[in-house]
UniProtKB/TrEMBL annotation:
<keyword id="KW-0998">Cell outer membrane</keyword>
<keyword id="KW-0732">Signal</keyword>
<dbReference type="GO" id="GO:0009279">
    <property type="term" value="C:cell outer membrane"/>
</dbReference>
<feature type="signal peptide">
    <location>
        <begin position="1"/>
        <end position="21"/>
    </location>
</feature>
<feature type="domain" description="OmpA-like">
    <location>
        <begin position="30"/>
        <end position="146"/>
    </location>
</feature>
<dbReference type="InterPro" id="IPR006664">
    <property type="entry name" value="OMP_bac"/>
</dbReference>
<protein>
    <recommendedName>
        <fullName>OmpA-like domain-containing protein</fullName>
    </recommendedName>
</protein>
<dbReference type="InterPro" id="IPR050330">
    <property type="entry name" value="Bact_OuterMem_StrucFunc"/>
</dbReference>
<dbReference type="InterPro" id="IPR006665">
    <property type="entry name" value="OmpA-like"/>
</dbReference>
<dbReference type="Pfam" id="PF00691">
    <property type="entry name" value="OmpA"/>
</dbReference>
<keyword id="KW-0472">Membrane</keyword>
<dbReference type="InterPro" id="IPR036737">
    <property type="entry name" value="OmpA-like_sf"/>
</dbReference>
Length: 161
């Protein structure tokens, strides 16, 4: 399993070819609009340990995750924290929670997926109006793959040096 950790970064991009920040923003909005949460795993306060109920929730998602077409979708494990504690601690615990889910999938099921781990902490996140115990979670979300890797021509017999 290739594990990629991504920290949420806001950026704008302008290139010499005339690509405007608005089009990048529009692409980001389209990407985020494609979000489909397929499962949620809950955690205790200040903990990234998977309880039995969390493992059971993940177990029920495995058949669906095995069917995901990774050319069409990205799988993101998005960790969240409740507003208790410092911002830095909340981001760290939210990443640890996402990693705990990824580790469980790898260790128990040898899932060969590429996961993108996101730690949002307790900032402006989806579900912010829920009871505090529902904020300490990892959401398993699918996004449309903006890179459309299935359409990229790949010629392994060429020397690209």
């Amino acid at each position: 399993m290739k594990l990629v950790a991504i920290f949420f970064v806001v950026f704008s991009l302008t290139t010499a070819s005339g690509l405007q920040a608005e089009s990048v923003s529009g692409q980001a909005e389209n990407f985020l609009a494609s979000r489909d949460v397929v499962g949620v795993v809950y955690f205790d306060i200040g903990s990234a340990a998977l309880k039995e109920s969390a493992r059971s929730a993940i177990d029920k998602l495995v058949p669906q995750l095995r069917q995901v077409d990774l050319y069409k979708f990205l799988v993101r494990l998005e960790g969240f924290a409740s507003p208790d504690g410092e911002m830095e601690t909340n981001v760290e615990i939210s990443m640890m929670r996402a990693k705990a889910v990824a580790d469980y999938l790898q260790e128990r099921y040898q899932m060969g997926l590429d996961y993108y781990l996101i730690g949002f902490g307790a900032g402006d996140v989806p579900g912010g109006n829920q009871p505090v115990e529902k904020l300490r979670r990892v959401e398993l979300a699918l996004y449309e793959n903006p890179w459309e890797t299935e359409t990229l021509p790949l010629k392994m017999d060429q020397d690209y040096r």
